Amino acid sequence: MMTECSVCMQKIEQMEQKKEKRQRSVMFAVNRPFNGALCPLSHGARVCCCPPCMDEQRLKVQPGDQVLISRMRK
Questions:
Q1: What is the pLDDT of residues 25-56, one digit of tens each?
Q2: Which residues contact 44 (CB under 8 A, 6 or more apart)?
Q3: Looking at residue 59, what DSSP letter applies?
Q4: What angle do CA 30, 61, 26 make, to 5 degrees?
């Protein structure tokens, strides 16, 4: 069972991790349109081989859109 103090420390640690993630994030300008398809063959095979980790939808973007990237290829 977690004590009130350990819950508070966990929340503080999570806030610090989010702050660090925002500091690592990089703004990119989109240069090719993307319609959010799960397997967009026009963007190369890697896109099809490496689907999103979650059940989240992919963003639809147009050239000139700005996106904040917090994860790079591993």
A1: 899 999 988 877 666 666 677 766 766 666 66
A2: none
A3: P
A4: 45
pLDDT of residue 65: 94
Residue 20, classed as helix, strand or coil, is helix
Q: Give strand ranges (E) for 13-63.
A: 26-29
pTM comes to: 0.54
End-to-end CA distance of the chain: 36
Residue 41 CB contacts under 8 Å (≥ 6 apart), including other chains = 48
Residue 73 corresponds to which tokens in the numbers above?
Answer: 């290829």
Q: Where are the domains of the chain?
A: 1-30+64-74
Q: What are phi and psi of 54, to 5 degrees?
A: -110, 180
Q: In the prediction, which pLDDT does 64 show?
A: 93
